[in-house]
Amino acid sequence: QVQLVESGGGLVQAGGSLRLSCAVSGSIFNTSTVGWWRQAPGKQRELVATRTSGRSTNYADSVKGRFTISRDNAKNTVYLQMDSLKPEDTAVYYCKLAYFLDIYWGQGTQVTVSS
Length: 115
Prior knowledge:
0% of the residues lie in helices and 54% in strands. The chain is built from no helices and 11 strands. The strands form 2 sheets. Strands 2, 4, 5, 6, 9, 10 and 11 form a 7-stranded mixed sheet that branches. Strands 1-3-8-7 form a 4-stranded antiparallel sheet, with no helix packed on it. The N and C termini lie far apart (41 Å).
């Protein structure tokens, strides 16, 4: 069974940094595409960043140059380094794993950026 557990969220001032982690159980991590999504109150869930099992990455325009997604296949973990945070980055951040047609989500971690 595949499970995703996020950690690292919290409260930070604008301009600060946070690093989110997503630990994945199961044996499919190395061949999966992983990513981070976020959902702010009253808004739809939106893509933040993805990384394939290779080295291909994709970022939302709003976070390019500020956020970095990485993965450690030995630890079955995906990270999101968030720098120069803005109040508009406030949201619940979700980890997502895609393995062929199967999709798995974590439970989410709250990130709050104060102005």
